[in-house]
Specification:
This protein is α/β, with parallel strands linked by helices. The chain has a single domain, classed as 3-Layer(aba) Sandwich (Glutaredoxin). The chain contains 5 helices and 9 strands, in the order βββααβαβαββββα. The strands form 3 sheets. The protein has a 5-stranded mixed β-sheet. A two-stranded antiparallel sheet has the order 1-2. The protein is globular and about 45 Å long.
């Protein structure tokens, strides 16, 4: 039986994932903060780099709002650290190598390339409020201006 798609207003599915800094991050450890949880296909690719740099460049706005930005992909921690170092990213990237959290949040999507169909990460953002509920969901995100849309949602 397929998982029910999560909706705005639902409790955000908890997770515990390894971070690029060698630690682990769980959603429960962030209760009381706004969490911007964004899923992206791959480190150091053009769209993913623009998206990460946009979040990086608005870091002071996130901090003022008491918000934490977390990027999630299937890349490993070493790949994440290389990506962070190359672009001076100022937030954690989490590794979901087996895709379980990506699946829980419904961020896998059928894609096709060169006539082959496969499951891939659908660029998605989930804004989780301080009570741990999904405040807003953006699926199939267009990168340019997205970080400002998310900021507006928390009064930024």
């Amino acid at each position: 039986m397929a998982n029910k798609e999560i909706m705005e207003g639902d409790a955000a599915p908890d997770f515990k994932l390894p971070a690029n800094n060698g630690g682990e991050v769980s959603l429960t450890s962030l209760k009381g903060k706004w969490v911007v949880l964004y899923f992206y296909p791959k480190d150091d690719t053009p769209g993913c780099t623009r998206e990460a740099c946009n979040f990086r460049d608005t870091k002071t706005k996130w901090t003022k709002k008491g918000a934490v930005v977390l990027g999630v992909s299937k890349d490993n921690a070493a790949s994440h650290q290389k990506f962070i170092d190359k672009y001076n990213l100022n937030f954690l990237l989490l590794s979901d190598i087996d895709g379980k959290v990506i699946e829980k949040y419904g961020a896998f999507k059928k894609k096709s390339m060169f006539g082959k169909t496969f499951l891939g990460i659908n660029r998605s953002t989930f804004l989780i409020n301080p009570e741990g509920k999904i405040q807003k969901i953006w699926r199939s995100v267009k990168v340019d201006g997205h970080e400002e849309e998310v900021l507006k949602e928390i009064g930024g």
